[in-house]
Amino acid sequence: MPLLLSDRPQKVKNTSLLVEYFEPSFVVRLLKCGLLKVKDLVKAYQEDACQVLGLTDKERLELESWFNEYRLLKPKKDLIREHLPAPNPNIVPFERIVLPLGLDGREGSNRGDNHSRSLEATDDLSAIRSWLVARANNVNTQGVYRKEAERFLLWCTQERQIALSSVGLEEASLYLRWLEQLGRTPDSLWSQQWNLPQHDWLGAKNTPRNDPQWRPFNAPLSHTSRKMALMTVRQLFNFLTKTGYIIHNPFDQITRKVPFLDGEGAPKEYADRSFSDDQWAQVSDYFMHLEDDEAKARLAVILMMGKGLGLRASEMLNARAEWITERMVDGETIKVIEVIGKGDKVRRLPLQDEQVVMINHYLHHRDLPELGIVAPETPLLASLGRGAEAKLSQGQGVKRGLSRSGLYRTLEQFLENCAREIEGTEPMAAAKLRASSTHWLRHTFATSALKSKMPINVVQNAMGHASVATTSRYLTPEEAEVARAMKNMKVF
How confident is the model at residue 193 (pLDDT cuts 50, 70, 90)? Predict the structure, then answer.
């Protein structure tokens, strides 16, 4: 007997009841296993619980066909981890690096004179730590600087077998070539040019730093990422030179230009990395049909912070209940969120009543009182795990704040599900959703604000840009004029 009903809804939602799609006798079997909704069955199947469900081979094939038809099975992103060779024990995160004599930089060939240097570091690791303390004044900048310094230090000591303070013109030139080839070169050709295999450097995305399978890279670097890598390493060497730790900066003799590789082309304008009104309407429509639970309430706050307020990902993660307060503005008391942005600069953004309601609704799902009563240090975005909650007082608690990888995964999965929903009728829009990232919400805020005729200096202030030139990059008047003019042209 077939499992599926012959007359069933064409649209499948994770929150739909199984009785809408399957024969009553099969539904009874599922209910006995505690499965009520489509998402429950999907999870059970992916956890390989078919034997518990008592599925025959024929039933399993029918069920699998239904899953595939409606793309209900999530891709197993950890497959790359299962096929990775054993990690190189010397390629580890910065905090675990231990360098032997000869590679630690104590006798680096480019080391400055002990009497003339102002940096009290005795080896390369401690010199990098001093740079991070002196130059990275917030946790997000420190994360970027540490990542690039970590990558270059590991490349010097493991690939080139040279101390960072012995780096010369040759290494400074080769590093960009190595970055360009990593993840883009067949292993047979790679091994002819470089000592260590690519799998020593490339691993799965979002692997925790304490995981043995951690790698410094998770994909080939884009043009923008390669440019950032070289700029950061150059800044590190500038610091080491100015403090006298090293004698000269080898990167001074290297061009700052980072070439485009085949297929990369010119970088996209900021306006291209944002959602159009129609695309955002599709995102909003999909969001509205989700089940009202804590995950949806949190997602609402994420979308509101990004697209509605233009916050950076780091600002969303750092946001606390105490950021939201009342201020007298233009003779009127209004609710505002006082955002602590780059360089610890504070910008004040007014909140609409609906935005405050969204946050309070999310707090309610977390069993917390509303704004003004909840503990000031409560993170506005928290992990979903109940076990991480720390009790403060009766009726209050602060969960562990959402991590950067958690924020990324939450939005990535939501946009992937949204893309699946529309790809049958809007394949190009679906592809754009899949290519997007957390920062696209901020881009969409900027382009929407400028389109609504908000003055550019006001948008600059709202986004916390240091220069109006940065904000102006969201404007593409020439392209808009061309698009309008081309609409009036005949097809051929």
Answer: very high
Q: For residue 265, is it left (φ>0), alpha (ψ between -120 and 50) or beta?
A: left
User: Distance between CA atoms of 352 and 203, rounded to whole angstroms?
Assistant: 43
Output the pLDDT for position 218.
Answer: 92
Helices (H), 155-206: 169-181, 187-193
Q: Which CA distances in Å does 220 have to 201, 217, 223, 363?
A: 10, 8, 10, 40
Q: What pLDDT was estimated at residue 179?
A: 97
| Strand partners of residue 348 | 338
| Distance of alpha carbon 468 from alpha carbon 466, whole angstroms | 7
Handedness of CA 371, 372, 373, 376 (dihedral sign): positive
**What pLDDT, on the 0 to 100 scale, is given for residue 297?**
95
Which residue's entry shows tokens 């909003």? 284
Residues making up the chain, counted from first to last: 492
CB contact burial 152-187 (16+ within 10 A = b; e otherwise) = bbbbbbbbbebbbbbbeeebbeebbebbbbbeebee
Q: Is there a contact between 124 and 99 (Cβ–Cβ < 8 Å)?
A: yes
Q: What is the gyration radius of the CA atoms in the chain, in angstroms?
A: 27
How does DSSP assign 234-290, residue by residue?
HHHHHHHHHTTSBS--GGGGS-S--PPPTTT-SPPPGGGGS--HHHHHHHHHHHHTS
Summarize pLDDT for 41-97 with one digit per residue, the tens: 887 776 555 455 677 767 777 887 788 777 776 554 444 455 678 999 999 999 999
Decide if 74 contacts 419 (C-beta within 8 A). no
pLDDT tens-digit readout, 104-120: 999 999 999 887 789 98
CA 446-436-399 angle, to 5 degrees, is 85
Given this model, what pLDDT does residue 286 score? 92
Tokens (6 digits) for 6: 């012959």
Is the pLDDT higher at 52 or at 257? 257
Signed CA dihedral, 194, 198, 200, 206: sign only: positive
Q: 58: buried, middle or exposed (CB in 10 Å: 19+, 13-18, 0-12)?
A: exposed
